[in-house]
């Protein structure tokens, strides 16, 4: 193992994967009516920053967005002070600071450096081990199972019995479907959060006004300019703003027919088989994560109206910033798109349909211009393969968009007390509860 990745696996050695069964999140167990993408989230921690510890605590307290299944594997932090970074002359990542925006080459270097760290630390292998419930105290008694795939994919137990599936064409198709729908849609999101404080902006304002005031005095021969600069500095010091700069890097688990064949034939075993388990543990090349997209969020005008403690202020701003990046990444990278079921068909007292309810809102970036496809997932009874069939197109109803952002109720924003977003049909056929909403166009949908 390379030296620069030791920090990454110090708290997540393979013994952890062998000694424990990875538990499903409570949310995933309680609401299994559709196939979500799976997501692990990590933070680049900057312990040298004044607010670094509070950003870390805020991030650690936030759950995985409920439109994704939780696929965290036991650790969530990359300590920027403990790695030899992309800059080589210093530790850690290229860092966005006040007055310095990351360049395209710095962003690419950060992204590819993280990909290298993940693959040296065999993070993808741990994610596969979680998918297949790897358990046991050693290679001698470790085994896999398909319980998690069965639950997240709504398969019958026999559908994903690997021993049976490998013997039939339909079984192989079902395993392939699980790979395409579940494993291929497994992601890691790395959030590098830095910030701007009132003090930083005040200092810059003082410098700027000082220069202007000095020039004014030089021209007039007086001292009025210095007084202007001092007043401006006092005003800037009284501002209590806190704004975060969030760079999010998205990585996807590589999974295809070739990788699946190696796993099922050479590594998977539902009963103790030390040779197969050891082969899995020793494999350094098959299981990989690939970098797929980057997103940056910084809102200079973000203002919170509620009364917050410093800790809750940081938590709220960080949560909303990461949510914005997730929305942008879903629009940018199609495999990361969110699917949301129609919750209810809304009718008036005479039974006339007035709209369709879905548990999705401003947190997911919905506005009055958003449009969604309504699709139906159909599974071929002969092959076990899934496909998505187009049903209709809908848009949010004006004034009926749910504000489900973090702490929106505390902010008393319009829409915060709504239980869902109401959509109206623009085109298409009959919409039923359980059908899925997908924003924009989705390449897997058949007309």
How many individual β-strands? 13
Radius of gyration: 25 Å
Oligomer: single chain
Number of domains: 3
User: Structural class, judged by helices and strands?
Assistant: alpha/beta
- Profile the largest sheet: 6 strands, mixed
Please write the string of helix (H) and strand (E) elements: HHHEHEEHHHHHEHHEHHEHEEEEHEEE
Low-confidence stretches: 1-32, 207-216, 225-239
What does the average pLDDT come to? Answer: 82
Q: What portion of residues belong to β-strands?
A: 15-25%
Distance between the termini: 49 Å
In helices, the fraction of residues equals 25-40%
Shape: flat
Count of helix runs: 15
Task: Give me the secondary-structure topology.
Layout: H1 6-9, H2 14-19, H3 26-30, E1 37-45, H4 52-61, E2 68-70, E3 77-79, H5 104-120, H6 123-131, H7 147-153, H8 162-165, H9 169-181, E4 186-197, H10 198-220, H11 224-238, E5 242-253, H12 257-267, H13 274-282, E6 289-297, H14 310-332, E7 339-347, E8 353-358, E9 372-379, E10 386-396, H15 408-411, E11 421-428, E12 436-439, E13 445-446
Parallel strand pairs: 1-2, 1-3, 1-4, 10-13
Antiparallel strand pairs: 4-5, 5-6, 7-8, 7-12, 8-11, 9-10, 9-12, 10-11
Helix pairs in contact: 4-14, 10-11
Describe, in plain words, how this protein is organized in 3D.
- It is built from 15 helices and 13 strands.
- Strands 1, 2, 3, 4, 5 and 6 form a six-stranded mixed beta sheet that branches. A six-stranded antiparallel β-barrel has the order 7-8-11-10-9-12.
- The chain folds into three domains: 3-192 and 243-332, no CATH class; 201-238; 337-446, no CATH class.
- Helix 10 (198-220) packs antiparallel against helix 11.
- The chain is α/β, with parallel strands linked by helices.
């Amino acid at each position: 193992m390379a030296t620069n990745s030791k920090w990454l696996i110090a708290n997540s050695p393979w013994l952890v994967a062998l000694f424990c069964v990875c538990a499903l999140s409570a949310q995933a167990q309680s609401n299994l009516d559709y196939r979500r993408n799976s997501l692990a989230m990590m933070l680049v921690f900057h312990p040298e920053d004044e607010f670094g510890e509070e950003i870390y605590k805020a991030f650690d307290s936030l759950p995985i967005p409920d439109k994704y299944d939780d696929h965290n594997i036991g650790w969530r932090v990359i300590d920027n002070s403990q790695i030899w970074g992309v800059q080589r002359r210093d530790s850690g990542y290229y860092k966005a600071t006040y007055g310095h925006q990351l360049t395209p080459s710095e962003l690419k270097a950060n992204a590819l450096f993280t990909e290298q760290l993940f693959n040296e630390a065999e993070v993808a292998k741990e994610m596969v081990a979680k998918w297949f419930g790897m358990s046991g105290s050693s290679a001698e008694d470790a085994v896999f199972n398909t319980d998690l795939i069965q639950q997240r994919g709504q398969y019958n137990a026999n559908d994903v019995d690997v021993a049976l599936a490998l013997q039939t064409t339909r079984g192989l198709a079902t395993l392939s479907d699980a790979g395409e729908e579940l494993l291929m849609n497994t992601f890691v999101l790395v959030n590098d959060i830095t910030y701007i404080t009132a003090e930083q902006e005040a200092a810059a304002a003082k410098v700027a006004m000082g220069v202007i005031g000095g020039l004014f005095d030089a021209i007039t021969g007086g001292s009025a300019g210095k007084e202007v600069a001092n007043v401006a500095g006092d005003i800037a010091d009284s501002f209590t703003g806190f704004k975060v700069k969030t760079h999010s890097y998205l990585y996807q688990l590589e999974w295809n027919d070739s990788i699946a064949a190696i796993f099922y034939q050479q590594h998977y075993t539902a009963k103790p088989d030390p040779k197969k388990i050891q082969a899995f543990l020793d494999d350094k090349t098959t299981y990989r994560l690939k970098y797929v997209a980057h997103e940056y969020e910084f809102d200079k005008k973000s203002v919170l109206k509620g009364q917050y403690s410093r800790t809750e202020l940081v938590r709220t701003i960080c949560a909303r910033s990461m949510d914005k990046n997730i929305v942008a990444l879903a629009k940018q990278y199609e495999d990361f798109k969110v699917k949301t079921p129609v919750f209810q068909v809304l009718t008036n007292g005479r039974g006339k349909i007035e709209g369709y309810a879905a548990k999705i809102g401003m947190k997911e970036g919905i506005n009055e211009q958003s449009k969604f496809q309504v699709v139906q997932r159909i599974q071929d009874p002969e092959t076990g393969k899934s496909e998505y069939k187009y049903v209709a197109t809908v848009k949010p109803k004006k004034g009926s968009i749910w504000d489900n952002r973090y702490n929106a109720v505390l902010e008393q924003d319009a829409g915060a007390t709504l239980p869902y977003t109401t959509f109206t049909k623009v085109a298409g056929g009959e919409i039923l509860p359980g059908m899925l909403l997908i924003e924009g166009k989705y390449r897997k949908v058949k007309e």
